[in-house]
Every structure is written in C-alpha cells, then in structure tokens.
TrEMBL record:
Gene name per UniProt: ftsI
Protein's name according to its UniProt entry: Peptidoglycan D,D-transpeptidase FtsI
GO biological process: cell wall organization; division septum assembly; FtsZ-dependent cytokinesis; peptidoglycan biosynthetic process; proteolysis; regulation of cell shape
Compartment(s): Membrane
Pfam families on file: PBP_dimer, Transpeptidase
InterPro entries: Beta-lactam/transpept (IPR050515), Beta-lactam/transpept-like (IPR012338), FtsI_transpept (IPR037532), PBP_dimer (IPR005311), PBP_dimer_sf (IPR036138), PCN-bd_Tpept (IPR001460)
Cellular compartments per GO CC: plasma membrane
Pathway: Cell wall biogenesis; peptidoglycan biosynthesis
C-alpha cells in the first residue's frame, strides 16, 4: 500500500489520473506491438526484405559450336560488365576522376553522363570487359559501382565459318545462321541467387543459390574447318584473279550427305561487326538462286539414258551449231558437227542437249530434277534458305523444253546443285543433307539407276580428263575427277539477259572410281575478260578437291605412272 502523506501534497484523484494515463499509454503501445508484430508482421517483413533481399540471375553457359573434329567455332567466355547506380555515384564526386581514368573516358563526358542520369538507379559503365580489366575498376571500391558476370560469344574461325555459324547479339541470343537456328538447343536456363543488400544497395551477403544455371548443349557441325579454310582461300584468290564480285563453294560427303565445307565471298568477321554491309552476311550458297545453265545438261543426258532411247555412243547432228526452236535459236559457241552423247557433255553443246530434250520431252527431265531436290528445301534448316524454282507446265512448249535442257528457265541454289551431283557420287542414291555431324548415314533412295549413273560418271570424267574437254582445269594429279562446266549470262532485273555479265560454275564429283565428294563452285561476275566456267570456276574446284582428297586420306585412283614405269632389273654384284 502506498502511504499517502497527510500534508496533502499528493491528491488521490491526481494520482489516479497519472496511473490511468500511464496505463492507457501501455495499452496503446501493447496494441501497436501486437499490430506490427502479429497482425501486419508478414506484410512488413516482406516489405523489409524487398528492400534488402535481391534475386540475382546466374548466367547460363551457352553451348559451343564445333566442327566435325571438335575444333571450336563459337565459344562463350566469361566477361565482366560494370554498372553504376547514379543516385549513389553522384555523391562520390571526389572519386570520379580516378573512375573515369580507369574506364578510359574523359572526366567531362563521364560527369555529364552521370548528371544526365542522376535520378536513375542503373546505367551501364562498360559491358563485356575481360575479368582482369574489370577487376582493376572494382578494386577501386567506389560506392555505387557494381559488376555483373556475363558471357561473351567469340568466334575463333572468324570470317571462314561466319556465314554458317552466324552470331548472337550482346545478350547471347542467336541472330543469324546456326546460332539462330539452334538457339534453344545452345542456350541454357539462367539460375538465380538470393543476396542481401544494405540500404544503399551494397551486397552484404550471398544468402543462397535458389536455382543453379543449367548450361546449354554443344553443337557439332558436319564441316571440317581445314576444308573450310581451303575453300575460303581458293575462292578468295580466284575472285581476286578474275575481278569477280562474289562467289560460293559447297563441298559435300556423297555418302552421308554431310556438308564438309560451305563458304562465300564477300565475308565478314563475326567478332567485329562494326562495318557490316548487308551483302557480306548472306550465306549465298543457300540463299542466292540463279539459273544454273550447263551443269543441268548432265541430268538431261541422264534422263535420256534412263528413257532407253539413248546410249553414251548414240550420235546426233549439232550442225551448224545453231538450232531453230519455234521463236528462238539455240546456240553453241562453235559448230561441233556430229557428236555422240558423251561428246555433247564434253563440248557442252546446247544444241545436243536441246535435241535430246525435244525427243524425250521435258517431263522426265523435270521429274528427275525434282527427285534430285531442285525446287524444294534441302532440309538443312538454315534460316532464310531459298527453294528456287522448278517450272511445271501442263503442256511444255518446245522453247520451254529446250531451255530447261541446258539449264535455263529454272533457278537453284549452289547447295541444291551440289546435292544433285552428290546423288551421282553416291551411286544414284539420294541421302538427306546435313550441317550436323552424322554418325550413321542413311542408305538413301535410288533416284538414278546404277548403270546409267555409272555411264554419267564416265562422261563427267571425260569432261575433265578427255581430249578437248571444257573441264580440264579441274584436274587433280593422281585422281580421276569428273564434273561439268557452266557459263551463264546473268539475268537482268528488267527481264532478258545481260550481254556482258556472267556467272561461272563448276559442279562435279571425285574420285570417279569410288566417289567420296561432290562440290559446286560459283563465281559471280568475273570482270577481267575471262569468264568461262572452265577457266574461272574449274581451278577452284580442283584445288578444293585436292585438299579434300589429301586431308581425308582418299587413296589415289589415277596413277598410270605406277603401272607404266618399268623398274630396271637389279644387277647382281653392283653393290659392295
Ligand atoms: C553462254 C547462255 C543465255 C540464256 C553463251 C555463255 C543461252 C541461252 C536463253 C555465250 C557465254 C557466251 C535461254 S560456252 O555453259 O552456252 O563453261 O567452259 O548464257 O545459251 O540460250 O559467250 N560454257 N555456255 N549460254 N545463254 N539463253 C559454254 C556454255 C555452257 C563453257 C564454254 C563456252 C553457254 C565451253 C552460255 C564453259 O556450257
């Protein structure tokens, strides 16, 4: 009990009032505690966490692209990206000079940019530095400066494989080529990490990994980087020599359908795309279509042989080197007189090809070309691939039949043409093409009967090895090479043909006794007066084939000197 003094200095009612007020205060505070801790606790805690717990993405490693032997063509390397929170960095003016210096920018530019963004919480300072260079700056420990780990794509083969591999953007998303076509396969799934930050956004602590990053898958291409280099170099040298605008080389494995090399000029460096012009990026071998011209004669002749109406020795009269077909005249550049079917191929006679076609009709030729893949996608899945055009008419007029027979009135890509020659190289069987390495090749579908196929191969060989053949510059010492030249007047956008602009083509297979490779070379607009396919494209074909035969260890099938040279008898007693 409290003893109340009688001097009256403390009145009972006052005392009760004070106690009452204190009690009220306690009640209010207790209620507040209950309110904050219990009733609003969850909400307030999450609000607090939102101000200090952050989820940070862990970048996923993008899969690498390699050639068939595992040589890297596209690889992701770790890089450091630096960013700043201007609302913090703005207060660190004394440290701006050292920061600007380390970033390699002048102080004024740096300060202006910071002031312009003073209200923001995020600006990039520098993306994709090497981790070593980045650490020089993070070691300065300037408040408001942060780093993120990222990956950057690097293309070790540079322009040599650029058109096929394509490239990614700065966020590592595929933009072109296989990087685009196989983006989902290559890219992984980013992970996530919880971190604690203080009031100023500085990292206090790594709390936990919520989800690990899942790396992407690797992609093994069918191409052989060594052959890709050879094709790239030989084409570049030929374009220089003949003053040409551009070109393509496609090299196929005839058994597996694998693309062993595919190159184009002009090319570009995927690691530095600052001065890119649109034409440089085009994978011409799959995107550009053109009238193939004489390489189609091979299939006109094959259709003729398949019809049973022709043998390689069947003769026809091509005199006088021209032939009237209703409104049009078919021309040979010389009068070749009487030629057999092999001779039509050897000399590349338009008149001879037209005569065969007018005799057997356009349909069997057209059907054969379709079965060989003309006018349809190759199935390579390359972004932007063209199909070309293979005409079909209910009734073929003689002009249409004649022009088809020597390669006009249709358009193909270089790759489609190479595919058709690969069928010849594969005993007449068509296998699907592939840009990815194949472990178990398919047997393929028989398109050209084996006996006809063999006869056509023999003719292709005579074009290269025979007396007066148009393809002699495609020869490779030690090997039997077969192929067909083509020199095509380019078409004008306004219709008709350009008088003095050409495309030089060579299509063929090797080695003839047991083919392994098919290739097509296209040279666009040689300008130095030489433009025949036999002069411009055939040597490139020969060089590329020579490289392929050597690097793939294909045994020589044409070594007459080995059979002819007689070794002198070893005389007894000449030694010692
Ligand atoms: C030719 C054509 C254009 C289209 C003729 C090339 C036709 C034709 C209308 C004259 C150059 C030239 C449909 S020739 O490819 O015949 O590669 O080594 O462009 O004929 O009718 O001054 N090729 N080329 N013709 N057109 N239309 C030969 C031939 C071919 C060679 C040489 C010389 C043409 C042997 C082409 C080669 O096989």
């Amino acid at each position: 009990m409290i003893n109340i003094k009688p001097n009256g200095s403390l009145h009972p009612w006052r005392f009760r009032l004070v106690i009452g007020l204190l009690g009220l205060c306690c009640a209010v505070i207790s209620w507040q505690i209950v309110q904050l801790q219990v009733l609003d606790g969850g909400f307030l805690r999450s609000q607090g966490d939102k101000r200090s717990v952050r989820h940070v993405a862990i970048p996923a490693h993008r899969g690498q692209i390699t050639d068939r032997h595992g040589e890297p063509l596209a690889v992701s390397t770790p890089v450091m990206t630096l960013w700043a929170n201007p609302t913090q960095l703005i207060h660190q003016e004394s440290r701006w000079p050292e920061l600007a210096k380390a970033l390699g920018t002048d102080l004024k530019t740096f300060a202006d940019r910071l002031k312009a963004n003073a209200k923001r919480e995020f600006i990039y300072l520098r993306r994709h530095m090497t981790p070593q260079d980045g650490e020089v700056i993070t070691d300065l420990k300037v408040p408001g400066v942060y780093s993120i780990e990222e990956y950057r794509r690097f293309y070790p083969a540079g322009e040599v494989a650029a058109h096929l591999v394509g490239f990614t953007n700065v966020d590592e998303k595929g933009q072109e080529g296989l990087e685009l076509a196989y983006n989902e396969w290559l890219e992984g799934v980013p992970g996530s990490r919880q971190v604690l930050q203080d009031r100023r956004g500085r990292l206090i602590k790594d709390v936990q990994v919520v989800r690990n990053a899942r790396p992407g898958n690797d992609l093994r291409m069918s191409i052989d980087l060594r052959l890709q280099y050879i094709a790239h170099r030989e084409l570049r040298e030929a374009l220089k020599e003949f003053g040409a605008k551009g070109g393509s080389v496609v090299l196929l494995d005839v058994h597996s359908g694998e693309v062993l090399a595919m190159v184009n000029h002009p090319a570009y460096n995927p690691n530095n795309r600052t001065n890119l012009k649109p034409g440089m990026m085009r994978n011409r071998a799959l995107i550009d279509v053109f009238e193939p011209g004489s390489p189609i004669k091979t299939f006109t002749v094959a259709a003729g042989l398949m019809s049973g109406r022709y043998q390689p020795s069947t003769v026809m009269d091509t005199r006088p080197g021209t032939m009237r077909v209703s409104t049009m005249t078919v021309h040979d550049i010389h009068n070749y007189g009487v030629l057999d079917v092999s001779g039509v191929m050897l000399k590349s006679s338009n008149v001879g090809a037209a005569k065969i076609a007018l005799d057997i009709g356009a349909e069997p030729i057209r059907d054969l070309l379709q079965q060989l893949g003309m006018g349809e996608y190759t199935g390579l899945g390359f972004p932007g691939e063209s199909v070309g055009t293979l005409p079909s008419h209910r009734r073929w007029r003689p002009v249409e039949t004649a022009t088809l027979s020597y390669g006009y009135g249709l358009s193909t890509t270089a790759t489609q043409l190479a595919q058709a020659y690969a069928v010849l190289g594969n005993g007449g069987r068509r296998v699907p093409l592939s840009l990815l390495k194949i472990e178990n090749p398919e047997p393929g579908e028989q398109i050209i009967p084996a006996d006809v196929n063999q006869q056509v191969l023999t003719m292709l060989r005579s074009v290269v090895d025979g007396e007066g053949g148009t393809g002699s510059r495609a020869r490779v010492p030690g090997y039997q090479i077969g192929g067909k030249t083509g020199t095509v007047h380019k078409t004008l956008a306004t219709g008709g043909y350009a008088k003095d602009r050409y495309r030089s083509v060579f299509a063929g297979v090797a080695p003839i006794s047991n083919p392994r490779f098919a290739a097509v070379v296209v040279v666009d607009e040689p300008s130095d007066g030489k433009y025949y396919g036999g002069l411009v494209a055939a040597p490139v074909f020969g060089q590329v084939m020579a490289g392929a035969l050597r690097l793939m260890d294909i045994p020589p099938d044409d070594m007459p000197e080995l059979q002819q040279v007689e070794l002198p008898p070893i005389k007894e007693g000449t030694r010692g």
